[in-house]
User: Which sequence fits this backbone?
């Protein structure tokens, strides 16, 4: 995927200005920036949910270059983009099971009717992709942050897209859940040559999984390896940290 000169305005205010970068096949790119930087707006533009200026070009492996303008284009048999939204909160006592949720989302089957065996098998197979078979009959409200992310991830992989976008997948996930999720993303990108583009406020783990980091605050302020971005003056200025002469923060 290649973005050039991407700009978005809302109600006369420039939300994104001249954003440009490449996302290569099988690459994991992390998007960081302060609150209100435009991270979700960038995702919504890529998903074709917002009007924008500039170009977003998709060149799925083995397929023709496809320009997405309304979010409906597909790259061959696989959809271009899958999306894992910020995790919704479920009431602890909510009786809706993972199976109910999955089938309602994928097959549009109403939750109050008995679920046919074929839908149960399909949901189990989808959850198996994220090693979550055992979650099938659990209530959504009883899942941990990491388990909920895995269910949402399984949904976004049905069917497996070329590019997977995740909006703050690590928020509300404990350290062990975060480790599992990152391992799973790494496994999925290798298995499906999936490009992964995610936003996060967790900078400590970036160097464990991200090939590239983009620091955004309405514009791209810095782009590079986790080390390059996290040690840059732009990073320190954006997050109001003070930097010593040698580049070390004080
Ligand atoms: N529908 C809208 N109309 C007007 N302004 C909007 C709209 N949606 C978002 N904005 C503004 O766009 C800016 C960027 O918002 P966005 O949600 O993309 O930021 P973000 O980086 O995802 O923030 P966060 O880290 O808090 O989730 C904010 O100033 C927000 O107020």
Assistant:
């Amino acid at each position: 995927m290649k973005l050039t000169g991407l700009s978005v305005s809302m109600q006369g205010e420039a939300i994104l200005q001249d954003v440009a970068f490449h996302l290569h096949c099988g690459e994991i790119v992390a998007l960081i920036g302060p609150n209100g930087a435009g991270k979700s707006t960038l995702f919504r533009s890529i998903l074709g949910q917002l009007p924008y200026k500039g170009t977003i070009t998709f060149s799925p492996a083995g397929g023709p270059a496809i320009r997405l303008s309304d979010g409906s284009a597909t790259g061959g048999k696989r959809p271009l983009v899958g999306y894992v939204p910020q995790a919704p909160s479920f009431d602890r006592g909510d009786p809706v099971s993972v199976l109910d949720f999955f089938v309602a989302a994928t097959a549009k089957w109403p939750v109050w009717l008995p679920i046919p065996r074929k839908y149960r098998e399909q949901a189990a197979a989808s959850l198996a992709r994220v090693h979550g078979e055992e979650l099938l009959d659990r209530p959504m409200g009883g899942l941990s942050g990491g388990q909920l992310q895995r269910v949402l991830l399984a949904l976004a992989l049905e069917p497996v897209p070329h590019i997977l976008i995740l909006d703050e997948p690590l928020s509300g996930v404990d350290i062990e859940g975060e480790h599992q999720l990152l391992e799973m993303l790494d496994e999925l990108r290798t298995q499906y040559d999936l490009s992964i583009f995610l936003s996060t406020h967790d900078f400590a783990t970036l160097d464990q999984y991200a090939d590239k980091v983009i620091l955004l605050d309405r514009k791209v302020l810095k782009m590079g390896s986790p080390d390059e971005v996290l040690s840059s003056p732009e990073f320190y200025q954006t997050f109001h940290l003070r930097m010593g002469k040698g580049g070390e923060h004080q």
Observations:
- The mean pLDDT is 87.
